[in-house]
Write a structure and sequence with these properties.
The protein is α/β, with parallel strands linked by helices. The chain folds into 2 domains: 148 residues, Medium-chain alcohol dehydrogenases, catalytic domain (Quinone Oxidoreductase, Chain A, domain 1); 143 residues, Alpha-Beta Complex (Quinone Oxidoreductase, Chain A, domain 1), CATH 3.90.180. 27% of the residues lie in helices and 27% in strands. The strands form 3 sheets. Strands 3, 5, 6, 7, 8, 15 and 16 form a 7-stranded mixed β-sheet that branches. Strands 11-10-9-12-13-14 form a 6-stranded parallel β-sheet, with helices on both faces. Strands 2-1-4 form a 3-stranded antiparallel β-sheet, with no helix packed on it. Helix 3 crosses helix 4.
């Protein structure tokens, strides 16, 4: 089978399309023929050798995909050959075949195509942990989504709206801001403008936002404290704009602000199944703005690193 492999850590150029042996499903595993694979910032972290436990080389890459079950190992009870599934887990989804635990497989919701299904696993899990589990957003609340035009950002916008919240997003270009509005955000602001926190607070009538979903970090994280309401939840899932900050701790206790670390692992199987129901009912809609062939995985990574991507990038595999 074809698979994107790493033999060294580094820039996008280290991603290589290679022929490798087909995997075989072990006990409790299913063999999935991959239709499409999602491209996520965590894949870039893997490629660079980051994270608490760098991958052992050589390795394949990719944490989510969609496909069809081709075979099952012994003891598998929840899926069968021919089932259309979302793969949420593993480290080798940039491949034509993956052998994966049945616990990491979910049925594709009604009305969701194979490419769109590949965009759900990591991004919507992360957004759910931010918006639902940590922020507990609901009707009448204001949610600020930093970097709203990214994959997790737009998922957070959709989930917050599905739960009745009002959403303000930030993005750097007119094109990105218009696209996020088309996906359901109530208002957008340009975070390149020095007074963007004042603009956000004005949109809430001076109250401030009840929650912030932040995958940007850096200065954007610090400035969010200028536009939050007392008792707000700041939900951090990434730091594309800076991993280290120097902050005055009075920003935390004067407004009783709660800062949460969030991620896809915080979205349980029960959470994810509940979320898939929202896709089936039409309250959530997976959007894929860029589709590239598997061989162009390096280009997909570079688009994310250069902040040229809008929404989700998916690799077409099968």
């Amino acid at each position: 089978m074809k698979s994107i492999r790493l033999h060294e850590f580094g820039g996008s150029e280290v991603l290589k399309l290679e022929d490798v042996d087909d995997p075989k499903p072990g006990t409790g595993q299913a063999l999935v023929r991959v239709n499409a694979a999602g491209v996520n910032p965590t894949d870039i972290t893997t490629r660079k050798g980051g994270g608490p436990t760098p991958a052992k080389l050589p390795t394949s890459i990719g944490r989510d995909s969609s496909g069809v079950v081709e075979a099952i190992g012994s003891g598998v009870k929840t899926v069968k050959s021919g089932d259309k599934v979302i793969v949420r887990g593993g480290l080798s989804n940039y491949s034509e075949l993956v052998a994966i635990s049945e616990d990491d497989l979910y049925p594709v919701p009604d009305g969701v195509g194979p490419v769109e299904a590949a965009s759900i696993g990591v991004t919507y899990s992360t957004a759910w942990d931010c918006v639902v589990n940590k922020a507990q957003a609901g009707p009448g609340q204001w949610v600020l989504v930093q970097g709203a035009s990214g994959g997790v950002g737009i998922a957070a916008v959709q989930i917050a709206k599905a739960f009745g919240a009002k959403v303000i997003g930030t993005a750097s270009t007119d094109e990105k801001r218009a696209w996020v509005i088309s996906q359901g955000a109530d208002f957008m602001v340009d975070y390149m403008q020095a007074d963007w926190p004042e603009q956000v607070k004005a949109l809430t009538g001076g109250k401030g936002v009840d929650a912030v979903v932040d995958g940007v970090g850096g200065d954007a994280f610090l400035r969010a404290f200028e536009c939050v309401a007392p008792g707000a939840n700041i939900c951090v899932f990434g730091a594309s704009g800076g991993r280290e900050v120097n902050m005055n701790l009075t920003s935390l206790f004067r407004n009783r602000v709660h800062v949460h670390g969030c991620g896809g692992a915080g979205c349980t199987r029960e959470d994810f199944e509940k979320m898939l129901g929202l896709f089936s009912s039409g309250k959530l809609k997976a959007t894929v703005e860029t589709i590239l062939p598997l061989a162009e995985a390096a280009q997909a990574h570079q688009m994310i690193e250069d902040r040229k991507a809008i929404g989700k990038i998916v690799l077409k595999v099968g």
